[in-house]
Amino acid sequence: MHPKRHLVQLHILKVTGESVARTKDQVAVEEPLEIRLSGENDGQRFDQNVSVTMRTPGDDFELAAGFLFTEGILRTRDELHEITYCVGANKGAQQYNVVRVRLKPGVSFDPQRLQRNFYATSSCGICGKASLESIRTLGCIELPPDMPRVKKNLIPLLPAVLLKQQSLFEKTGGIHAAALFDAHGNLLSVREDVGRHNAVDKLMGEQFLADAVPLHARLMLVSGRTSFEVLQKALAAGIPFVAGVGAPSSLAVDLAREFNLTLCGFVRDGRFNVYSGEARLV
């Protein structure tokens, strides 16, 4: 198994009106990634499964680091010793769907910090108030009240800039993207994945591993809707400005307003809505 297999080619039947033709198509790969955390806690070694996520292979180390950072499990780059693929029992072969994140010696780990990962999702029954409270206890970075300052006529231009860099979306039409811009609209980085949260984690993981957080002067654009989880990850990285091509959820708006994060939605066709933090728009 190769860790960089983003696409697969399939034989399909294409129907157009009365016309039927056999042809080939490319689809985005979706495979599970198990993230394991290992280290030493009170003199006892531990190695435990933290999460299993369905993702597009590639940038797996960034995905693992970004997930652990945005979920509050990793605080700083200095806590991290190494990230590796696990070696399986089958002749020592690399298991490219299992990643192990090793903490540095002396870095303690509280298993209670994992609890939030299992209920802060849009598919569960936990109320919005409990989800917001979990963000407060996570200790998110305080956002600067007056930066970045972004010209309002710049916002509608960003999706086209992102689309030009979405190589996997161009080939499959079925993949999400997250991008980081500076206040002048210069594209800094893009990550793609079948999961919108994974795309954000890959982007945040890249910045975390580069020891570039907090990202107070940056703007993040996502190719789809902006959910609670997307906003939570932005807050963890100190991003004050988030825009989405799609709609925000009500809880995402609540979160943005509580933490004074600028949130824009429906950024397309030369227009957009501002749901929070309008003071950062020039």
Please give a handful of descriptors for the protein shown.
Ubiquitin-like (UB roll); alpha/beta; six-stranded mixed β-sheet; 282 residues; Cytidine Deaminase, domain 2; 2 domains
Question: Can you summarize this structure?
Answer:
The protein has 282 residues and is α/β, with parallel strands linked by helices.
What are the SSEs and their pairings?
Blueprint: E1 7-16, E2 19-28, E3 31-41, E4 44-55, H1 60-70, E5 80-87, E6 94-103, H2 128-138, H3 158-164, H4 167-172, E7 176-182, E8 187-193, H5 196-209, E9 218-222, H6 228-236, E10 241-244, H7 250-258, E11 262-268, E12 271-276
Parallel strand pairs: 3-6, 9-10, 10-11
Antiparallel strand pairs: 1-2, 3-4, 5-6, 7-8, 7-9, 11-12
Helix pairs in contact: 1-5, 5-6, 6-7
Task: Characterize the structure shown.
This protein is an alpha/beta fold and 282 residues long. 24% of the residues lie in helices and 34% in strands. Helix 1 (60-70) crosses helix 5 (196-209), helix 5 (196-209) runs parallel beside helix 6 (228-236) and helix 6 runs parallel beside helix 7. The longest helix has 14 residues, at 196-209. It is flat.
